[in-house]
Here is the input.
Amino acid sequence: METHTHRRRLAIAGVAIAASLGAALLARSAGAGPWVIETADGTSGAGAYPSLRIDAAGQPHVSYGAPVLLRHAVRIGGTWSYEGTVPLVAVPVGVYAAEYSSPAGVQLVNIPETALALDPSGNPAIASANSGDSKYINFNHEIGGIWQPVEGIDPGYAGEMPAIAFDPLGRACVAYHAIGYQGVGDAGLFLSTRTGTGWAVDTVDATPQAGYWPSLAFDPNGDPCVLYDSGSTLEFARRSSGIWTIEPVDAAGQCAPGALAFDPAGDPHAVYQRGGIVHAVRHAGIWSAETVDANGTLASLALDRGGRAHTAYLRSTDGALRYGVEDSGLWSVETVGPRAFNNSIALAADGTPFIAYSDGPAAGGAMRVAIGTPTVGVAPGTGAADATFGPISPQPARVGEPLAIAMSLPRSQVVTLTAFDVTGRLLDRRPAAPASSGSSVVPWQPRLPGPGLYLIRMRGSSGASGVARLVTVR
Here is the structure.
């Protein structure tokens, strides 16, 4: 087993979350409807633990569980087809009772947890939990239309809750919680990478309870990053030069499941469950968070090419499938359909949202996919990477003194300014307002509690973003 032992855990004072922004939740349509609901697999009980991706040709793929089976479905030319090829059926997965239930309290039995990724050629690869008490993690990969023999990725430990992604070298990587069995205790969070000779296993976090519902993504440098729950804290881990650095995102108790993605500027975004659905973003080393919907659970996440966050989730009270999108720092939400169980969201190149979900096992549900309408008109190369923000003057400023904030935008867009303290607590918000392309100076007089160090964040509707520091004195 390969293990990187030189790892350090960050305890940064400025990695707390901001106060909830529930009041900012808009009561208007999110703009993706009307929704078309399609059936990818009508088999009774199909669709549990779906994982959805869209290939370069715009074709959605989804992995999911049916009773004692792992399946893959793809939509080509508007028609869905699903398959359970020999290696998928010959090694049935998930013959165990799943750990958590739907909002209505229905428990899944004999259905696998699945995670889907597309390799650089667009071929689907699936990580899933294996059958029996040991629950090994399996890897299935389709190449050239043929499913390859199934592989077990870690013979040393059992595993559950897999997440999968391909690294910049085209290697499959799977993050999972290593669980105990037959007298062996839980081992925490592992990341396993497929090599030419097998799988190299790396320990991300050896805390036994770490690794619940991990989400795996690669940052712009190609470094693996994992969002996961450690039992009491939502953590963000990044491996750089063989060293894992772990920092807290939210220490408000169990915050799983969560989802992770990077925007065009390289900032990580997370959605997760904490008394509702929360969206957090890390900029300049500080996580700030806002409430998307206080009545939500089981969220998934996708970012469009403008850097806007899109999430699908279930309403806690009745399990209705919901969709939310952030625009200029404000969230809009809408109901997609009636009661669902779990979900996965992905965006086509034009911003069309696809949401895979199950009707739920109690209703003998099937694998459904909801398709919205395009929501993005942003051309590549016009987002945050081309924007600059700051400086702020005067510096230092007296408490209550008006500020002049410099920014340069690659295109005209609607801009929102927010002020945070160094713990990430939201202090004030400047209403969204149009900003012209090119260089400009925006006036603002934020409400700040007193002298100190503060962070001013800019978010634009076309993906522009930035953070500048402000020092105030009496």
The longest strand covers residues 330-339.
